[in-house]
Amino acid sequence: MAEAAEFQGTTAAPACRWARHLMTVLLGVLLLVGLVQLPAAPAARAESPTSRPVGVAIDTVTPVAPTQNDTITLSGTVTNNSGSTVTDAHVGLRVGPQVSGRSDIDDIGYRAGFSPGTDGAELGKHTQKIDKLAPGVSREFSISLPAKDLDLGHDGVYQLGVSLSGRSADHPYEGVLGIQRTLLPWQPSGVEGKKTQLTFLWPLVSATHLTARTEKDQQQTPIFPNDDLAAELAPGGRLNQLVALGKDLKITWVIDPDLLATVEAMTKSYRVDGPDGKVVPGKGQAVAKQWLSRLQTAVAGHQVVALPFGDPDLASLAHRGKDVSGTLSHLQSATELAATTVDTILGVKPRTDFAWPVDGAVDSSIIDVATSAGAHNVIARSDSIREPKASYTPSAARQIGGGNTAVVADARMSTVFQGDLIRADNASLAVQRFLAQSLLVNRQAPDDERSIVVAPQRMPTTSQAQAMAAAISGLSDGRWTTPLDLGDAAKAKPDPSANQQVPGSGSYPESLRAQELPTEAFQEIQKTQSTLDSFKVILTSEDRVVTPFGSAIMREMSTSWRGDRNGAADFRDAVQSYLYELTRQVQLIKKSDATLSGRDATLPITVQNGLLQGIDGLRLVLESSQPNRLKVDASQPVKIEGGHRQTLKFETRANANGPVKLTARLYTDDGQPYGEPMYFYVHVTSITPMVLLVIAGGVLLLILAGLRIYLQRKRSAARGTADGGAPGGEGNGPGDSGPGDDRPEVPGDPAPDTGSESTDPSGTGEKVDR
């Protein structure tokens, strides 16, 4: 084609040849440059966003919020994650740019690669040399420097990085082999403007540990399914740490009263289900006493908010339970019991006008249910009630109508302590992120006094609680925040620009909805409540049953069952089965078939009370399937002391022979059946053939006597006519009796309708009293 182009006689052919030659020369030059620069390629790979042969972990930053005169220390570890030894290595510090907004914090600490433009230059005077780092080996580092050497600018939040630079077989030229970043809140001088009022909720909530089961003794010794709670209360345990850390913090305690009641039960003698099915003594009595004593000291002088007893799942109630009749009444009872429990055990008057849905997620139905029991303040979260202006964080309080207030916790600050914080570097980063967020919130509107609420996860782990405490302590100097109780935060003046619209039901997160208790759970709860209502009316000491089972029903609705449907179902079954077992302690003693050997007899029916308390308010009803054959008394009252039996006797009257089915059943005074009916047969043999013969003979005699009288009167009338007499005329009057007149005989008394009592055996059945 080139030759063809040349033969065409055009001027383009020489130009094309010249262009091809020029391109060849340029490619050669570029290739030469590439070969010369090729050795620098390993350093470029070390700085790529995805390459991180050495892991860097920042375990501590002290102080967490330094001032101008402080000395900052960063310590941690470096780990060789590659397959080759790292040599000529050192750890250095790098100051990145000032963080401009709250959303920029989200990624800091999780980027893997190194970027000179954003990570900043190394502070050459503050490095630490690291010896050879073999594959898989870790080394600790600690670098200290005066805060002024960081050369930070205005108040704000800065990115602070720790990098490891060195070389290895895979990276023969020195470069950054690993880096980790953290955040440094920087406010060396006093606050510019007004401080942010900060409310931090300190939750004291645990899973459900106690059912309604007790020993069969007067003390009603509780039986726990396990002794796991004792480990949480012991030194080093989760609940122990929450109390030990919280006592020195400026926080608002949020407590589930069920936890207090459960621990209080452990301070006395209690029992635990053993692995072999036997019940053994519990071992947590001492730690339970100690924990309650320390908690009483810790909450003194602090505001205490009591959740409804058992921490009922408000979202499940709103979405699945409110349509089940009677369910919402449990929420009211749980709220009332909360105040009494906290006051009795801790000796403080708690606030019970706050509701806390799971993760602060709300919709209109949740608000309605939460406020139905008197909680006019609902703790929500800003990722549920969102702000149209993402760059500004308004005060927590929002007026949502009906005299109710939504206290909207800050989502970023509330969720920063979630996840695995057992590793020191994760915990340290969480603390720095929290402090950085709090400072950026203050700097958004430094001239406005705002109230910010932090509502962390309901049941923080020990490591999470320790990180939370470290973060709150970092704000103790009050440079840009000041502590505030939750009650005061709810009364704070709402920001006029804040969103006050409660989201609709369609906005509720599907992930949370999938964890809710199903409707069937609330139906089973109401079945248990109905059984309890029928049982308590016959008890002389109903509190012994109503109190433990009422508490157990509240626990069946607990938020702690989220994500554990099988565990929740097993708990409900256990409560219902135990209640049914107690109701069966009051029952009719099985009666065998009986033989009635006389027309009138007495049938005994025995009722047993296996409870430790007396029963009253029952009636025993005995019904005959054939009243025309066997008639019985209607009913008799039942009243039995605990552990005793009562035999009631029913009068019967037989009218005919044969088997008759009888039904004995207990009823409450209001006519509701109690327990299962008992059936048995009575074989009537008192109407014997001899008695029937006597009765038949008597009837025959009466008929013959009447016939004879009739014939005699007919003959007398015939003779009177033959003698010329006429009725009503002359002759013998009706009172006269002439010669030859046959006077009718008067029949005697009929034979008795009962024969002598049969002396024959009554058969295999029971012989009744006479």
Number of helices: 20
DSSP strand count: 29
Helix/strand-derived class?
alpha/beta
Strand order in the sheet with the most strands: 25-23-27-28-21-29
Distance between the termini: 134 Å
Low-pLDDT parts are 1-50, 725-770
Name the CATH architecture of one domain.
Answer: Alpha-Beta Barrel
The percent range for strand residues is 15-25%
Mean pLDDT: 85
Helicity level? 25-40%
Quick one: biggest sheet?
Answer: 6 strands, mixed
The gyration radius over C-alpha positions equals: 47 Å
Looking at CATH, which topology of one domain would you report? TIM Barrel
CATH class of one domain: Alpha Beta
| Anisotropy-based shape | elongated
Notes on the protein architecture:
The chain has 770 residues and is α/β, with parallel strands linked by helices. The chain has 20 helices and 29 strands. A 6-stranded mixed beta sheet has the order 25-23-27-28-21-29, with no helix packed on it. Strands 8, 10, 13, 18 and 19 form a 5-stranded parallel beta sheet that branches. Helix 6 (238-246) packs parallel to helix 14, helix 7 (257-266) packs across helix 10 (327-346) and helix 17 (519-536) runs antiparallel to helix 18 (543-555). The longest helix is centred in the C-terminal third of the chain and has 34 residues, at 689-722. The chain is elongated, with a radius of gyration of 47 Å.
Strand-helix topology:
Blueprint: H1 2-7, H2 12-37, H3 41-46, E1 54-62, E2 71-80, E3 87-99, H4 116-119, E4 122-130, E5 138-146, E6 156-167, E7 175-186, E8 196-204, E9 223-224, H5 228-233, H6 238-246, E10 252-255, H7 257-266, E11 271-273, E12 279-281, H8 285-299, E13 304-306, H9 314-321, H10 327-346, E14 354-355, H11 364-372, E15 377-381, E16 397-399, E17 405-409, H12 411-415, H13 424-444, E18 451-454, H14 462-474, E19 481-483, H15 486-491, H16 510-513, H17 519-536, H18 543-555, H19 565-583, E20 586-588, E21 594-596, E22 600-609, E23 615-624, E24 630-632, E25 635-640, E26 645-654, E27 658-668, E28 673-684, H20 689-722, E29 766-767
Parallel strand pairs: 8-10, 8-18, 8-19, 9-11, 10-13, 14-15, 15-17, 21-28, 21-29
Antiparallel strand pairs: 1-2, 2-5, 3-4, 3-6, 6-7, 11-12, 16-17, 20-22, 22-26, 23-25, 23-27, 24-26, 27-28
Helix pairs in contact: 6-8, 6-14, 7-8, 7-10, 9-11, 13-14, 17-18, 17-19
